[in-house]
Amino acid sequence: MFKILQYYIFLVIILCLSTVAQAQKGERIKYKAEELEYGKKKDESYRKLTGDVVFTQKSTTVYCDTSYFYKKRNVMEATGHVRIVDDSTTITSRQLVYEGDERMAKLRQNVVYLRGERELYTDFLDYDLEGEIAHYFNKGKLIDTTNVLTSEIGYYFAKDEFAQFYKNVVLTSPDFVLKTDTLRYNTLTKVAYTYGPTQITSDDGTVLHAKGGEFRTVVDESDFVKGSIETRDYYLEGDELYFDDGEKYYKAVFNVKMTAKDEDVIITGDEGYYDRRNGISKVYGRPLMKRILEADTLYLAADTLVAIESKYDSARRILAYKNVKIYKEGLQGIADSMAYFNEDSVIFFYGDPVMWNNQNQITADTINLEISEDEMKRMNLRSDAFLVSEDSIENYNQIKGRNMIAHFVDNQIDRINVNGNGEILYFALEEGDSVLMGMNKIFCASMQIRFKEQKLSSFSVYTNPEAQFIPPHELTEEMQYLTNFAWRETERPTLFEIAPYLNPDYEFIPVEVKPDALGDIQSGSQNKTYTPTQNTKPKNTPVRSLNPTSSSSVNTPTSVEPNTVKKSINKPNKNLKTVDDDGSFQ
To answer: According to the UniProt record, where is the region Disordered (predicted)?
Structure first.
């Protein structure tokens, strides 16, 4: 009984398949032409039609000059001014093989596909008329009202309003060119999705590299993952990238790294962006700048780091503001703000700057450090220059002057020239630098101080010097310190403080990044601008601070809330303030 049931089921299936096959074969191609000729080729009969040939099947009409129709296979081969019209789609070519049972058109040579506002050009196109799917496989070009897309292989799904492109894909818009190997394109919304290495080149030469993302071509906006933005002077990398070509704005989030093209400068942080209109890159959220030198690396940290691009080499610079700290072997420092000029590798420190070179502490209203051939060469101290060094029995040798110039040899202070209003307090020691002989107190117009083994070894004074030697028993507390003396060793930054990730015991703790933009250069309202302080010198908790009227004083540092970072896209403040060539803000 079971075998009989199986037999009948098998017959039913065969009959159904036969009915479907007959139905398919029953949809014969209809034709008409000026001339009809019968023939046979390789045991297969055909009908040759010439002169105003017209084929029809369902909603499809085909026009051509000459055609061979193979009735048994329901296939026609057409040549000469081939044109297919199917509802809202028109396709032209020189050659065509039309398979009637499968409703498949294979067009060759000078193929032009037109559907609404879309145009597709290729030499090899297969078109499924039932599914309305166009497939080219030997280079093609799709054009719509916004973009031009070219690739080696492409599929256009007309019903679903999207296209897929593979191999050497190029999307060209009025303002940029996108290159990738795999791209999905929504022909209705004009949104492109890439799924591999992607490069976008803007009309001004800015290049963005990514590993795939979403690109909104109508508004020129994109979201990418793991990539880099190539600006005029830098490469800006991040785990996530945002690109707004209309606003000329690019943003990188998480593990941000900005590398200078023509020098050994690297900036890292939690978030950064590139404002192409103004040629400004900004990194914030634990930003760190590294300047690679011949012997070691100069590290610089601040709340915010800004790179300024310019067609003029002299105007290219990096700015740091709020809580600036630097570290390298033999030199540490702090300041309110900093400007680094790329052309001549000069670093300007503003707003109560303090530098430490081994046992020497150096302060002035403004300090600039010159780097040449990857070595420190000279430090210029402008206005109220002050050098302090502690000896072996905790006395403080002090040198003051209007301006000072410190010269370095092998990244160590070799000599200092003091110009104007020179003052010096120098404690003379004997018996292995453990017994005080007395203190030298000198006034002069200028002097030169020489160093040996990183310690003050000798000095020369010029232009009507006034000198006094005071023995130990005559020294009072007030005599031992020049006006505005402050020993600030506790503020001296360490390497792990500036670059904590170098500490083997460092444990990374992600921070939330709050909205930040170019407007952070401003403070408060949009009409209030931030200016680095250059003439005020707030004291920051010195160990000892003495003057003739006070034996000691302690001052509390002003706290500054550092920038934090947040995973969000924030556009820059349109009221961006410019930066002068000396690094100060207007």
So the answer is: 519-586
Residue 270: CA count within 13 A, CB half-sphere: 22
Which pLDDT value is given to residue 300?
92
**pLDDT tens-digit map of 13-39:** 444 444 344 334 447 888 888 888 898
Residue 11, classed as helix, strand or coil, is helix
Residue environment code for 159-198, b if the CB has 16+ CB neighbours within 10 A, otherwise e: eeebbbbbeebbbebeebebbbbbbebebeebbbbbeeeb
- Cβ–Cβ under 8 Å, residues 183 and 167: no
Residue 266 structure tokens: 């690297």
Amino acid at 190: K
Question: Would the pTM count as exceeding 0.70?
Answer: no
Report how far Cα 372 is from the mean position of its chain's Cα atoms: 27
pLDDT at 313 over 60: yes
Between the two ends of the chain, the Cα-to-Cα distance in Å is 99
Q: How many CA atoms lie within 13 A of 83 on its CB side?
A: 10
Contact between 365 and 534 under an 8 Å Cβ cutoff? The reply is: yes
Q: How far is residue 108's CA from residue 82's CA, in Å, rounded to a whole number?
A: 10
Cβ count within 10 A of residue 271: 29
Q: How far apart are CA 27 and CA 101, in angstroms?
A: 7
Which of 192, 188, 196 lies closest to 167, judged by CA?
Answer: 196
Q: Residue 95: what pLDDT? A: 95
Question: CA–CA separation, 286 vs 503, rounded Å?
Answer: 16
